[in-house]
Amino acid sequence: MCQAHNRCGSCRAPARLRRRRYCWHLCCLNYGWWAIARKETPEHIIGFGGIAPLNYLTQRRINLGYRLAVEAWGQRYATELGRDALALAFDALSLPEVFGLVRPDHAASIRVLEKLGMQRFGLLDDVPGQAPSLVLRVCHPTTAPT
């Protein structure tokens, strides 16, 4: 049953490590992944997302990411989460830039990131045998490149 919901196979060990990493980000860096729920049913988690460091394109980058249950697709949760995460990144943390990594066939996610002001920055060959992922970036308004 566990493997049907987790492509990695075993749930417990990777989930524990991931939870520790998420808690460390929130406690020590003041940012990380948030749970996403509807206001009407806060006990029912429909996804997660936020900003967190990732290593790609030869360096560590602050990445905006999210995963939503299929039932939540198309209801603007990704856009709302993205706006809140970018407000945290730029207003509270004064980060100079935030990146987004998206598969080229995920048109809805590409639209969300572009709606948030992200522009195409590069490609990342991260999935063997597949087209490279798109890397998008948005800069802090006061540090935007000219």
From TrEMBL:
SUPFAM superfamilies in the cross-refs: Acyl-CoA N-acyltransferases (Nat) (SSF55729)
Domain N-acetyltransferase residue range list: 1-139
InterPro entries in the cross-refs: Acyl_CoA_acyltransferase, GNAT_dom, N-acetyltransferase
Protein name listed in UniProt: GNAT family N-acetyltransferase
Originating species: Pseudomonas salmasensis
